[in-house]
Specification:
Length: about 150
Amino acid sequence: MPGAVKDEKHNKGAQAPEDRGVSWQDVCQALWGADWIAPLAEVLAVNRRTVERWRSGAVRIPDAIIADLTRLSRSGPVTRAYGDVLRRIARGETVEGIEAWMSDYRRALARYKSDAGRLTAIPILASPLPQTPKPPPPPADQAGEGRH
């Protein structure tokens, strides 16, 4: 549609009306962390400076990209792992190749679990598996909340 993108210099990172709950920049940060500009440029196959101009508001980010990024946050968890998958695919990796890599890492973690605490010369393997700390119980004054 001719003229669909109007006034490119004055968007200031606006969101599509249906997606006002989460900004496209929030989604990018969830996918790639604080340094999300280069990964987004890579995934979209655009120049990094273009993304920097979008972020600053100097140039309007296309509405279709805003819509797709904000839809990501509504269709499931937006995680760094998903951002990593998007980058790998943008670099030319296949889904099958990524799955094989994940399978190798699962096997490597299983091996680490069996070796941890059994070997002595490699410090990281000399110690037993690190345990995830359990959250502390709620304070006594909160334990009975809601019961009257």
